[in-house]
């Protein structure tokens, strides 16, 4: 699987997972809060921050008709009008340049999800290193074609998408000139349950499309995200908030700074732990082999004594004969005197 360059970061199996902190609307349209989020994400070790680039009018229509109000009883946003929700969650366009500059100053990459073709052009004018296509926009083929035409990597979330829909999106992106594509396994519920996350899709998706695959995770905590690394995830995206108790449109399923720091650390550990198929112990374990068991003299032995359970024992360390020789030495005769604590060797046996 080839590596992909996003800004100054190399993304691929040979690198620790690329951790993206998604600000979404958790800044509550307060620029000071947004700046503090960037500082906290950088301190936690995130490799990138991501925004969402849209206006309420570019997302939906300002109408009260069925479908334009969230009716699902179990939704975090039950009863909200779509237009009003997007208006409340949007990141002002005039913030983007400041936030991107701040992120780069802090050593992070910064990019966004465009939700219409004008947003693609706007983000491209800010020289973003890649584009992220949200799950709900995976079927917006004109949007994918537009983003892919800019010659930058595409990260595409696949929540709800069938294999055929993913194939159409990937084929469209490649036909438009984008060869650097990363798919993200995603469950489009907010929050998502671990039981509905289906991480085993990650290696299947990677094999099906021949591209890197990561995880856009809406579950609570970091367990699912860390587990995804063992299945080959090279990118992990989590929503981020300074304080869940302080609110924010996505606060309920977002990580706080200390949790993000734990994700960065534990996902890297998981990646390091994968290694290769190894038997016989690693080089680092070589010294530990001395603390295996072996056959030792457990009571003083004189030349001509018979060896048995009364004067031999299998104990640590491992400088004597291996325990597998126990039955072979019982009943044998000692050639020479052997004090207690002597590691038994064939040269001491008649």
Automatic annotation (TrEMBL):
PROSITE patterns: AFP_LIKE. Pfam families: NeuB (PF03102), SAF (PF08666). Residues 294-350 form the AFP-like domain. Gene3D superfamilies: Aldolase class I, Antifreeze-like/N-acetylneuraminic acid synthase C-terminal domain. PANTHER family: N-ACETYLNEURAMINATE SYNTHASE (PTHR42966), PSEUDAMINIC ACID SYNTHASE (PTHR42966:SF2). This is Pseudaminic acid synthase. It comes from Bowmanella denitrificans.
């Amino acid at each position: 699987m080839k590596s992909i360059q996003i800004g100054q970061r190399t993304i691929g199996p040979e690198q620790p997972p690329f951790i993206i902190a998604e600000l979404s609307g958790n800044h509550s349209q307060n620029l000071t809060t947004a700046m503090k989020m960037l500082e906290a994400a950088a301190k936690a070790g995130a490799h990138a921050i991501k925004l969402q680039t849209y206006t309420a009018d570019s997302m939906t229509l300002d109408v009260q008709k069925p479908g334009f109000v969230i009716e699902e009883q179990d939704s975090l946003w039950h009863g909200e009008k779509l237009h009003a929700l997007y208006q409340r969650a949007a990141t002002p366009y005039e913030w983007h340049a400041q936030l991107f500059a701040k992120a780069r100053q802090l050593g992070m990459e910064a990019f966004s999800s465009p939700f219409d073709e004008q947003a693609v052009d706007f983000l491209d004018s800010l020289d973003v290193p890649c584009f992220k296509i949200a799950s709900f926009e995976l079927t917006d083929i004109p949007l994918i074609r537009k983003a892919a035409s800019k010659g930058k990597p595409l990260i595409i979330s696949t929540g709800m998408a069938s294999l055929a829909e993913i194939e159409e999106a990937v084929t469209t992106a490649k036909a438009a000139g984008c060869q650097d594509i990363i798919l993200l396994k995603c469950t489009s519920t907010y929050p998502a349950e671990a039981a509905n996350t289906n991480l085993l899709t990650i290696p299947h998706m990677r094999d099906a499309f021949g591209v890197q695959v990561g995880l856009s995770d809406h579950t609570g905590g970091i367990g699912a995200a860390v587990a995804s690394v063992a299945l080959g995830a090279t990118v992990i995206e989590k929503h981020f908030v300074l304080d869940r108790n302080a609110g924010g449109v996505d606060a309920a399923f977002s990580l706080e700074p200390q949790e993000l720091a734990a994700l960065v650390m534990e996902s890297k550990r998981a990646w390091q732990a994968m290694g290769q198929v190894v038997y016989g112990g690693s080089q680092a374990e070589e010294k530990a082999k001395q603390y295996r068991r072996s056959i030792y003299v457990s009571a003083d032995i004189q030349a001509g004594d018979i060896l048995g359970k009364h004067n031999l024992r299998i104990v640590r360390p491992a400088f004597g004969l291996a325990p597998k020789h126990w039955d072979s030495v019982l009943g044998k005769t000692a050639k020479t005197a052997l004090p207690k604590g002597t590691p038994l060797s064939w040269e001491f046996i008649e």
